Please model this.
Amino acid sequence: MGHRALIPVKHLSAVKTRLSRHLTPEQRSTLVLDMLHRVIDALHASQALESISVVSADSEVLERARCWGAHGLQEEQPGHNEALAVAAHHAINHGADTLLTLSADLPLLCGQDVRAMIEQSETHQIVLAPSRDGTGTNALLARPPLVVPYVFGVNSLQHYIAQARSYQLSYMLYRSLGTELDIDTLEDLMLYWSYDHCETLAKG
Model:
């Protein structure tokens, strides 16, 4: 099976605006790049993917992604979901049978999360990883790619579930700390730092 991953990243000038009261633009950019690096490392660690692609309109993001072993795809279509659809067609044209589309801000993601979602895709056409508040979607694994259109945004989880039911597709929800904790608010950031600190102490 051609398992591939796709990570959308906004232009660094527009990232994490909800943290603008607490972090400078440079700090927000650094945070996003650090999280992207962690996500790419987790995808590599899964040893379950044929390729990893990052789609962005930001040349620095694409350059960093290539340095970290991912393909950099220039965003060709304005709009988050529209750009993802173009990138997904690119993946299909290069042999993708299964496509994992996930957020770049999942710093606690691990290879086991990726393997578990891929294993679930053997019996389900759609695997969804909900956000911590249960309304958003932090990862979507589709078999085949674009079996449902992209609808990332407000209340996307319910939209994806409604699509799966409408198209009579088998779906399941995958939950773990690594897929649930995306970083949008100061509370999210503090929670991430607390887990990251504990992990560092555990490693000695």
